[in-house]
Structure formats: C-alpha cells, structure tokens
Amino acid sequence: MAQSWPEDRRKALCAWLTANGINPDHVPRDADLYIEPAEDGDLYNGRYLHYEAFHLNAAGHRHADERGLNAAIERRRTPLLVDPPDWWEPYRKPTRDQLLDVLTKIRALHRQNENTGDCEHCSERDYPDYSVPWPCPTIRILGEVSP
User: N or C: which terminal CB in the chain sees fewer CB atoms within 10 Å?
Assistant: First the structure.
C-alpha cells in the first residue's frame, strides 16, 4: 500500500479493506499490508490479513507516537474474508535489521583506494578519466568519512 494508486485502484483497495472489516481511513498510506496463513495451533484454519492501523483513543482520535511527532501505529490482523484484487501486491516495510544489512553492504562497496585516495566503487569503471575523491557522496550522505 506504500504507493500512490490510480483513483480506480485506490477505491478498489478501500472497498477490499472494508469488505474485510477494516476502515481504510485508519490505515496509513505506507502501512504493511500482507496475507499469511494461520499459524500451527491456531483455531482459525484460514488466512489472516495483516495490516497496520492508527492507534485511536476512546473518542476515535489518533494518539501521538512516543516521540510526539507522528500518529501512533499498531499492528493488527483479521481473518481474510475477501480475497484481494488480482493486481494487488503485498507490502512490508523493511525491518531495522534489513536496513542495517543494506548499510553494511553499501559501506563495503564504497571504500578508499590506498593508492589513489579515491572511492574504489565510484571510480572503478572510468578511472583514470573519471575519479571520485574520498569520501564519495554516498559515504558523505551516510555521515561517515570511512566505513
């Protein structure tokens, strides 16, 4: 659900959520939204629709998150009553560990060449005609001088 849908698909997605007992107004635009079978030992044998929703107080207003900057989000699941539209694709935001793993891989690619002082990765294809001084823009964006 993390993308902007054309109006017809947005309406179809909202109708699908509603058919499964979910108020689409309570689901953030970038919410995790995926289907998984019930776990072993669960009395329910079907599939669950997993999603994120705004945490609401008794008056129906959104709570602020722990930083007080955004709306608080909670993970929920409900039995899948209606299958999704054919074009729908599940969505899960990457976990913290997945993001840290990507950063580790980026740092391993972008390292300073001992001889030239340039970024090996950014300069590798066109050196010596094109060289990228260390720290390269990627490392600067990460806020680091060296991995």
Answer: C
| Predicted model pTM | 0.69
Instruction: Give residue for tokens 């994120």.
Output: 52
Mean of pLDDT over the chain = 89
pLDDT, position 3: 59
Give the chain's largest Cα–Cα span.
66
Alpha carbons 79 and 48: distance in angstroms, whole number: 4
Whose CA is closest to 56, among 26, 20, 97, 96? Answer: 26
> What values do phi and psi take at 90, rounded to 5?
-65, 155
Peptide bond into 133 cis (omega under 30): no
| Spacing of C-alpha 23 from chain mean position | 21
Low-confidence spans in the chain with pLDDT less than 70:
1-3, 126-128, 144-147
Complete DSSP assignment for 30-70:
T--EEEEEPPTT-S--SEEEEEEEE-B-TTSPBPB-TTSSS
